[in-house]
Prior knowledge:
Elements: H1 2-15, E1 19-25, E2 33-34, E3 40-41, H2 43-55, E4 58-64, H3 66-74, E5 80-84, H4 88-91, E6 94-96, E7 101-110, E8 127-130, H5 134-141, E9 147-150, H6 153-161, E10 167-171, H7 172-181, E11 188-204, H8 208-219, H9 223-233, H10 262-292, E12 296-301, E13 307-309, H11 311-315, H12 329-335, H13 338-352, E14 359-366, E15 372-384, E16 390-399, H14 401-415, H15 425-442, E17 446-454, H16 456-463, H17 465-480, E18 488-493, E19 496-502, H18 507-521, E20 525-527, E21 530-532, E22 535-543, H19 550-566, E23 571-574, H20 577-596, E24 602-611, E25 616-628, E26 632-634, H21 636-646, H22 649-671, E27 676-680, H23 683-687, H24 692-703, E28 710-715, H25 724-735, E29 739-745, H26 753-757, E30 762-765, H27 767-770, H28 778-792, E31 796-799, H29 805-813, E32 818-819, E33 828-829, H30 830-848
Parallel strand pairs: 1-4, 1-5, 8-9, 8-10, 22-23, 25-27, 27-28, 28-29, 29-30, 30-31, 31-32
Antiparallel strand pairs: 2-3, 5-11, 6-11, 7-10, 7-11, 12-13, 12-16, 14-15, 15-16, 17-19, 17-22, 18-19, 20-21, 24-25, 24-32, 24-33, 25-26
Helix pairs in contact: 1-8, 16-17, 20-21, 22-24, 22-30
Amino acid sequence: MLSALFALTSWLSAAQAESLTVVGDENYPPYLFKDDDGNTVGYLVDLWDLWQQKTGVEVNLVPTAWVNAQARVLHGDADVIEMLYRTPKREALYTFSQPYAKQTVAIFNHESITGITSPRALTGFVVGVQKGDACIDKLEEHGIYSLRQYDNYTAMIEAALTQEIKLFCLDEIPAHYYLYSLDRQHEFRKAFTLYTGEFHRAVRKENKTTMALVEKGMAAISPEEIKTLEKKWMGKPIETFHYSRELAYGILAASVAGIILLLWIALLRIAVHKKTREIETERTRLQDIIDGARAGTWEWNVQTGECLFNDRWASMLGYSLAELTPLTASTWKKLMHPDDLLLATEKLEQHFSGQTENYESDHRMRHKQERWIWVTSRGRLISRTEDGQPLLMRGTHIDITEKKTADELIWQQANFDNLTQLPNRHLFNARIEQHIKQARQEHGKLALISIDLDRFKEVNDSLGHSKGDDLLVAAGRRIQGCVRQSDTVARLGGDEFAIIVPQLADKAQLQQIADNLLDNLSRPYVLAEERVYISASIGISVYPDDASDSGEIMRNADQAMYEAKNKGRNRSMFFTQSMQDSAMQRMQLARDIRLAVERNELADYYQPIIELATGRVEKAEALLRWHHPVQGLVSPSVFIPVAEEIGAIVELGDWIFRRAAENVVKWQAIAGEDFSVSINKSPVQFQANTFEHSDWLNYLHTLGLTGRNIVVEITEGLLFNPERSIEDKLLNFRDAGIQVAIDDFGTGFSSLSYLNRFDIDYLKIDQSFTSQLAANNESYALCEAIIVMAHKLGLKVIAEGVETPLQRDLLLEIKCDFAQGYLYSPPVPAAAFQRYLEQSRQGQLQSAT
């Protein structure tokens, strides 16, 4: 009865599911891994996106450490686990899908170790494995228990490269990916195949309804769509092969003249028979190795041109030996790709002249089906004529077409951005080095254009990462359309692009390119039937006018781009030396900010907030000021962004909070217990991994204050798709009674949904609206609309930047709650604000009497 009830509950839950959490190994390229920008990419990301489209069920794909992935499913924190091998131990824990891929799992050994051909040979060695991997079960089945477990494949590969371990167990696809990307594929090689496993998807045992939903969605994905994903992400499994040194034993024949004792004749016969058996055994062993490696063998008489091939040599090309007669070097050369023939011949000549110990060549050969396959040819000259000319040569051919295909895919993924298919930072760095070297040799010039999309994050946060990706692809195509084919357009990461313009450094032409880029990038983008507008900030630097190497020209172009952004965005700037000076001043400023608290250089200022209906000072906004010992009073617009960039804003924010809280205690006696102070809290403070919010609450309690005495001011951008930690901190403030105000409301990329989602208490109308306020003009209508909306939602409104009696009266007319601005008082030090507060209260008392 209980099991039936549980099954019914699970069915109902799955039937009503609006989302599905899928977990998988975060270090398993090309199925699931992180690219250079830290984005999760791979075959499974695209596959589950398709599944989501087919089913309408939202998928949350969570890459994590493999052992954690299994634990999350078993603990109920995830619904489905990907890429799980089926073992007897796991049968008791999971319900498995049908298999969807086969993977070869192998033992890899360092080149210094030989003779590892079976599990039995692992005895006495320590073998590296990933925690939770099926390798552990398989090795223990063979009696191998000396295992060193690592959290993930990356840690295991790093341990192998430092020779902490010399053997490890790993699926062949990720093994070759890691070794290739680290250029260590020749240092470690496959020892033997441990087993061949099948990938399954799995759910917790008895959760058959979820599995049925998963399988139904996967069945809806067409074979053509699967092939498209496989072509994008996967080459075929890479095969590696091993060779043994050809051993040749000769028989020393001795002729004995005269009469030999019968005993010696018998002994000689026994010795000859024994040696013959050894030679036959060695020959069989070598043949087994060749057959196991699926190698074609060849023997070439260099003087006559005659060749001997085995059946495998011919069959890998689709022929029989009879079809290739006559078996000569000419037949061989006719089958070779003409573009590869010259290099292969050069390598032969080098080997014949003694420059190389072995002949090695990778080249293409024509298959019977009129296609080209890649082969690796290895051989050695074993004899010469009496006058020293090459005579007899022997070697092998191995089909490496699949490896070449996989290598090309890995190279593509290592050098091109997965999203835009533009060169990535790795290839960009190589090309700019190459172009600078060429320009230096030819005494030429080149330009580097740095492009950053303005307000891209707001689009990404409001419309979602999928639409943000679509915008990046479209922007990349527009950039390509503005330059020559000889120019390199690269995506360096995020919303940052760069262009290398070789052999063109005329500023007028560069300005024309920049203007064309600005014009094209600012045109509207249609994303999911929504028109979206962005702009770009562009910086330009020229070699050798501005820089002497690649690092310097990249820094200079970035500085010019940031200067364009600081000047208001949607513009281009050429690098100048003054920018470099400004950057140095900014670095000095960053160093000085870290010492400002310690040197007592900070000051807290306050600006009153007036209740319009009564004219009473009900609140104040605390503002941070910095008296620099050399530069004097530094504007907050200068030092606050620097403090945010280096993380010092957390300490500065804590300092102003404590000063404000201490002053509230003093001012309650004048303004009443409900008097409150607003404190600006930077997004960086919310994102910092500190206990600042709980420290604030504890400090208020120590001073005898409550949450209603503090208002936290935040910007709209913080609430677009906030992280869970930000939501938690806002909820903690709400629970403590601390009110929240949205500063500069209406100036950002607004989405009003967050007003319902979060407990917001105040909206602050930005001074850009207030400053233009006049009877019945557009600003008047906008302010009135904001106030009506806020009151309908139970929010109060504070107007910033009120400077004239007319602005005050119009705000009263449209029922604004509070006002703040120079009409009442500029920001003043704490002592001056206290005098203002006392005079205001005294005036109100006199008016009342």
